[in-house]
Amino acid sequence: MNELKHIAIIMDGNGRWAKKQGLIRSFGHKAGANNVENILKCCLEFNVKNLSLFAFSTENWQRPKNEVDFIFSLFDDYLSKYKEKFKNEGVCFKVFGDITKLNQKLQNNILEFSEYTKNENKINFNLAINYGAKDELVRTFKKIQEKNLQINEENITKNLDISTDVDLLIRTGDCTRISNFMLWQCAYAQIHFTKTLFPDFSSLELEQIINDFLNTKRTFGGV
Ligand code: IPE
Ligand code: IPE
Ligand code: MG
């Protein structure tokens, strides 16, 4: 059986979920944010040690300002809602991406939250905000240059926002693309695309995907 150390999810389809029921896109983002808890719980049950979720990309700034503002208000709500809960449940929380572009209050809250949960060790829960894989690689190479290190796979991996390879990448929302998410870490990931829109993505479906993954032979270029 495969080891499953890291699941990454491109949480797509919130807007279409809302539209389908005649609601504005924001309702979809709220429903999506509420669904994260189910996904996290399922990963804890399967003893998956790392979960990385794509919440806001470096490209998502192109969206209408009211949508962007609403998504960021959800991040504020999320941080205050889950701080104690995560601590009690052994969740080590981290935001990855370029957070220097976020407003100062949100940056402070993020850093405080990470500090508060940094010794928790049931699961590393990484939330991508203002994240793009190309941007991450540029920031990584800059760090390597500043530290005067050699460019090699080990140093690149160590200096990324997230150093753990992704075993299983899932994209909800019926689009078969990666949209600039964790390109280095997904080099050998199994990829699963589902038509389910993220707010409807259930722990039952995730369980099935995990079980398929566990029973798939991974050869890593061997035989
Ligand atoms: C994903 O859902 C959430 C973000 C990108 C913030 P979308 O908002 O992209 O939903 P669709 O793809 O338009 O349905
Ligand atoms: C990817 O979804 C980004 C997130 C899920 C945060 P998008 O909806 O922004 O990506 P595209 O436009 O389908 O590539
Ligand atoms: Mg989308």
TrEMBL record:
Keywords: Magnesium, Metal-binding, Transferase. The keyword Lipid biosynthesis does not apply. The gene is uppS. It comes from Campylobacter canadensis. GO terms for molecular function: ditrans,polycis-undecaprenyl-diphosphate synthase [(2E,6E)-farnesyl-diphosphate specific] activity. This is Isoprenyl transferase. Catalyzes the condensation of isopentenyl diphosphate (IPP) with allylic pyrophosphates generating different type of terpenoids. The active site is at 12, 60 (proton acceptor). Its cofactor is Mg(2+). Binds 2 magnesium ions per subunit. Homodimer.
